[in-house]
Design goal:
- With about 400 residues, the protein is an alpha/beta fold.
- It has three domains: about 210 residues, Rossmann fold (3-Layer(aba) Sandwich), CATH 3.40.50.1100; about 90 residues, Rossmann fold (3-Layer(aba) Sandwich), CATH 3.40.50.1100; about 80 residues, ACT domain (Alpha-Beta Plaits, 2-Layer Sandwich), CATH 3.30.70.260.
- The protein has 17 helices and 14 strands.
- Strand 4, helix 6 and strand 5 form a beta-alpha-beta unit.
- The longest helix has 17 residues.
Length: about 400
């Protein structure tokens, strides 16, 4: 069976009123920054914060009564697990979810919260997958594959139907590629409705299998990425032909690009996305000339990011933009020296976040001391203003981070 627009339309009828028809909104600010019209599909607003529940529900809804009674099994690092667990619980179907031991704790906890039996097995996804396939055979459970199943792919394709109904002017779709279920479904729907539309895939530099296939290259697959939702070694047997047929090009983005996109979406759109959900915007930022003047649809495909990871991305982003800086002052070691530096920084509008007063662990002479401060500033120009004023006041001051 090959996937068609009719299959996706049938999936949309099954999903109607059971998953959220998420908004697809124009971002005026991002468009001005990038130089094209940008439309964002907020799949991170689904109940499980991911598009994955679309494909999961479309598959679950077509199980026989006997299959429902026996139960289902899925192997997933997170979002597919939650989608299967949530809708299986709604439908009264027992669910077993096999997750690799590295799976994000928030995704493990959410999956258990939906009533599924969670089995943590394997140090890699492939290890977990091998174990899960054997467990499904041993227990005679219906397997709900995260991407290599055309019913699952059809469910994901309903996003394409919605986007072109909500924003008919879109002429380019930029979609993350992991296993290929999302882009396979969306691209099939989009080309069925609008044959001239361009579909661009995005992968991380650390997991470039689809990029390799499209460009005839052999870049190596690495161990981990912040976009763990698309950290897949290769697309599926069923999804690769869909990518070959419907995807015009595949672009690569780096880890720094993804971090920047996560931060931009948080600051500009006030929305939280995980790494995989930000790669589309990362591609627009990195390859701006490729999209100049286009009307581009992006899918914010998931929002399940560890709070500590998000906090670190925010802090790193503040450092890169100059809003958080580490400064070093070389001063005479006399009473009140630290207070004088703090007073000067306050007058210059810098808010002190952290202070280190170094005597023993520095190379300065014994009558001097190094004061290192982490300060909140207004940006790079403000840092230079602080350093200039500090030097004018007689301090040896420099930025060290």
């Amino acid at each position: 069976m090959s996937l068609t627009l009719d299959h996706i339309r049938a999936a949309a009828q099954r999903l109607d009123s059971h998953v959220l028809e998420t908004p697809c909104l124009r971002s005026r600010t991002l468009g001005e920054i990038i130089g094209c019209e940008v439309f964002l599909k907020f799949e991170n607003l689904q109940f499980t914060s991911s598009f994955k529940e679309r494909g999961a529900l479309n598959k679950l809804a077509q199980l026989t009564d006997e299959e429902r009674q026996r139960g289902v099994l899925a192997v997933s690092a997170g979002n597919h697990a939650q989608g299967v667990a949530y809708h299986a619980q709604r439908l009264g179907i027992p669910a077993t979810i096999v997750m690799p031991r590295f799976a994000a704790p928030v995704k493990v906890a959410n999956t258990r919260g939906f009533g599924a039996q969670v089995v943590l097995q394997g140090d890699t996804f492939d290890d977990a997958r091998a174990f899960g396939l054997q467990l499904a055979r041993d227990r005679n459970l219906a397997l709900i594959h995260p991407f290599d199943d055309l019913d699952v792919v059809a469910g994901q394709g309903t996003i394409g139907l919605e986007m072109l109904a909500q924003q008919p002017s879109i002429d380019t779709l930029v979609v993350a590629i992991g296993g290929g279920g999302l882009i396979g479904g969306v691209a099939t729907a989009a080309h069925g409705l609008k044959p001239g539309i361009e579909v661009i895939g995005v992968q991380t530099e650390r997991f470039p299998a689809a990029w390799n296939a499209k460009h005839g290259q052999n870049l190596p697959v690495q161990q981990a990425t912040i976009a763990d939702g698309i950290g897949v070694k290769a697309p599926g047997v069923l999804t690769q032909p869909l990518i070959d047929r419907h995807v015009n090009d595949v672009l690569l983005v780096g880890e720094d690009d993804i971090e920047q996109a996560i931060l931009m979406l948080l600051e500009i759109e006030k929305t939280v996305v995980e790494g995989a959900g930000a790669v589309g915007l990362a591609a627009l930022m990195k390859h701006r000339a490729r999209f100049a003047g286009r009307k581009v649809g992006l899918i914010l495909c998931g929002g399940n990011i560890e709070p500590l990871v998000l906090a670190e991305i925010i802090e790193r982003g503040m450092v890169k933009s100059g809003r958080l800086a580490r400064l070093r002052f070389d001063v005479r070691d006399i009473p009140g020296a630290l207070a004088d530096v703090a007073t000067l920084l306050g007058k210059l509008g810098a808010n002190i976040d952290e202070v280190q007063h170094q005597r023993a662990f520095s190379s300065v002479s014994v009558e001097r001391v190094q004061i290192e401060v982490v300060v909140h500033t207004r940006g790079v120009a403000h840092i230079e203003e602080i350093l200039s004023a500090s030097r004018a006041a007689g301090y040896k001051a420099e930025r060290i981070g």
